[in-house]
Amino acid sequence: MRSSYALEPMVELTHWSVFEVPIHGPDAPWTRHFIGFAEELGLAQVSSAIVMFDRDHGVGASASHRVFQLVGESGSHPDSMRLWASWKLMNGIQRERDITPGFYPAKKALLEGEIA
Questions:
Q1: Rounded CA gap, 105 and 109, in Å?
Q2: What's the gap between Cα 105 and its chain centre?
Q3: Number of folded domains in the chain?
Q4: Has residue 116 been placed in a domain?
């Protein structure tokens, strides 16, 4: 039986970030979300809660069964940050933690075109 994650197309995110929020309340575990820009679609993206992340390949899956590929260095895109602000407002989120630094650092050798 195929995983339902395999049925969704992969979305490549550039200018990506990862934030944690207390969507289920301050005493529940905080959920993590990808925020980025899908160049191929020309759209900002905010994922539902991240349920899996493969650090070796920079690929993660969300609770809504979308699969995201983190591309290049982390960063922010103005459209993505506007969408993130709207998403937080719609979900009543007032607190957040930016956990981007160290979440998935690009490998220096790969950036320089060397074989890892």
A1: 12
A2: 13
A3: 1
A4: no
Q: What's the predicted TM-score (pTM) here? A: 0.84
What is the H or E stretch that residue 32 is in?
A: strand 31-38
Three-class secondary structure of residue 4 per DSSP: helix
Determine what percent of the chain falls in helix, strand and coil, rounding each to the nearest 5: 20, 35, 45
Q: CA end-to-end span of the chain, whole Å?
A: 34
pLDDT for position 114:
47
Amino acid, res. 44: A
Q: What is the pLDDT of residues 88-102, one digit of tens each?
A: 999 999 999 999 998
- Residues shown for the chain: 116
Positions in the chain whose pLDDT score sits under 50 = 1-2, 107-116
Identify whether 77 is part of a domain.
Answer: yes
Cα gap 67→17, rounded to integer Å? 15
